[in-house]
From TrEMBL:
Source organism of the structure: Thermococcus sibiricus
A GO BP annotation: DNA repair
UniProt name for this protein: DEAD/H associated family
Xref: PANTHER family: ATP-DEPENDENT HELICASE LHR-RELATED-RELATED, LARGE HELICASE-RELATED PROTEIN
Domain Helicase C-terminal: 1-86
């Protein structure tokens, strides 16, 4: 008897007696692995048993380190959101419904909650002022005051009869997810895409839908508008994975493991050492050593001291593989900032493909990067500010702003017993976003949307930490020009090969690349 489940197996729901948990592919974090495997033998004095089935060689390396860490109780650090101002709006309004509050008393109460332990008084007051309707221009957009605030007296309380109803009908933190409709500029319906896919689109991006290629032009509400582009090469993959991101701590341990294996490659006892230390079978140990030997013969093995950047040209494109093994969230922050800097300098669109093990930037062949220009990217002065500018006018900012505006009660999902359509909410969000960016760049919910994207969706803190290691010389940047992507870059190459949609095609492409690489290695030898 077997139960087949999605990632919801992490929930603390007991579903009776389970003997064994089989995980297909890496769970991407030690904590997640232990939570899922912990469903087996979930009784006092019983041992939880789990098996991880790996999907490819990168997965094998990752799971070897993950299982070793799990056995040695080396858990990932937990990240708690830092001063989420949209949720603070809900808390303060809820407090105001109960009684009149002294401002200082309310501030000290809020700071007792861990996520707000270092909340600044200015941010606290900006939320109160927003709730009290003190930002001119918002009333015209039907955003009305929900509390009264007397700063001289130092007090605030609820305002209006409808406030309680608004509060109860609109609180909660899970956003409504939308299906985004795709139309041509002459209003012909093409199909739908996931909201998370639409978030990644930039004007000029080309993607595949219903077997045809289209260029993204603009969005309005929950519609995006495109023009057909027959025969054009897609710039973003049609297949969009919902895989969980690799944790930063585990990524750094995988980097260290790479250096350890690199030191073993010429050791006759390498296989037995790996089998004993990491409790893997002979097949797994041979596969890891074979993978690393191929990489070393063809290119350089990137680890916690060497960052490899590969430059590969095809007929039309210059591709740059950055082997930054820091997890997908931190890679997304770095790659977006780098792509923004390059697009400004070269005046061209830059394609991006991201994985946990690195990212690829794609440029037109006639606008390549010099070694100097690649090294300059790692010296970026203010990564946060650069990323903030890179997010301007993106679909990601527009759609995440709707989520924040919902949570922060700026856009009500339900009012007077009626539910507002998602399309209407999105249109309102885009109008308010333009107004706030122009008139109130420090508006609390605008600050929050940037925080949420950079700290929760991406991992700006660890991306900054990694950049500092490069700047301090702890990590050396090695740039190589290769005829084909190296074995460690195969998975990135496949993600970037947007015309490859099916998993069978991906496997076939990796096999072809592997055959070509092995031929080149033999020729070198």
């Amino acid at each position: 008897k077997a139960v087949v489940s999605s990632t919801s197996l992490e929930l603390g729901i007991d579903i009776g007696s389970i003997d064994l948990v089989v995980l297909i592919g890496s769970p991407k974090s030690v904590n997640r692995a232990l939570q899922r495997i912990g469903r087996a033998g979930h009784r006092l004095h019983e041992v939880s048993k789990g098996v991880i089935l790996v999907l490819d060689r990168d997965d094998l390396v990752e799971c070897t380190v993950l299982a070793h860490n799990a056995r040695n109780r080396r858990l990932d650090r937990i990240k708690i959101p830092h001063n989420p101002l949209d949720v603070l709006v809900q808390h303060l309004l809820g407090m105001a419904l109960e009684r009149v509050w002294d401002i200082n008393e309310a501030y000290s109460l809020v700071k007792r909650a861990y996520p707000y332990h270092d909340l600044s008084f200015e941010d606290f007051m900006s939320v109160l002022r927003y709730l009290a309707g003190e930002y001119a221009g918002l009333e015209e957009k039907k955003v009305y005051a929900k509390i009264w605030l007397d700063e001289e007296e130092g007090k605030f309380g609820k305002r209006g009869k409808m406030t309680r109803a608004i509060y109860y009908m609109n609180t909660g933190t899970i956003p409504d997810e939308a299906k985004i409709e795709v139309y041509t500029l002459d209003k012909r319906f093409i199909g739908t895409v996931e909201e998370e896919f639409a978030e990644r689109l930039m004007p000029g991006d080309i993607f595949v839908l219903a077997g045809r290629t289209y260029e993204f032009k603009k969005s309005r509400g929950n519609r995006i508008y495109v023009v057909p582009k027959e025969g054009a090469k897609p710039t973003i993959p049609a297949w969009f994975s919902e895989m969980l991101p690799l944790s930063f701590d585990l990524a750094i341990d995988v980097q260290r493991f790479r250096r350890e294996v690199k030191g073993l490659l010429n050791n006759r006892r390498a296989k037995s050492f790996l089998m004993k230390k990491y409790q893997i079978d002979e097949k797994a140990a041979k596969a890891i050593l074979g993978y690393f030997r191929e990489q070393e013969k063809y290119s350089t093995i990137p680890d916690d001291e060497i960052l490899l950047v590969e430059e590969v040209f095809d007929e039309r494109r210059a591709k740059y593989f950055f082997h930054t093994l820091i997890g997908r969230r931190a890679n997304e922050a770095l790659s977006r900032a780098f792509a923004y800097l390059i697009s400004k300098k070269k005046r061209t669109n830059v394609g991006i493909a991201i994985s946990d093990n690195g990212f690829m930037l794609i440029l037109p062949k006639e606008k390549p990067l010099s070694e100097e220009e690649i090294k300059e990217l790692f010296q970026v002065e203010d990564l946060r500010e650069t990323l903030k500018r890179a997010l301007d006018n993106t679909e990601l900012l527009k759609r995440r702003f709707r989520h924040v505006a919902n949570r922060g009660l700026l856009i009500l999902r339900r009012y007077m017993g009626r539910k507002k359509s998602l399309s209407r909410q999105q249109l309102n969000a885009q109008t308010l976003l333009r107004l706030l960016k122009k008139n109130y760049p420090d508006f609390p919910l605008l600050k929050e949307v940037y925080r949420e994207i950079m700290e929760d969706k991406m991992d700006i803190e660890n991306a900054e930490l990694f950049l500092n290691w490069v700047k301090e010389g702890k990590i050396k940047v090695v740039i190589e020009h290769n005829e084909l992507p190296s074995p460690f870059a195969f998975n990135l190459e496949v993600i970037g090969a947007s015309d490859v949609v099916l998993m069978e095609d991906r496997r076939e492409l990796i096999k072809q690349l592997h055959r070509k690489i092995m031929k080149l290695i033999e020729e070198k030898a």
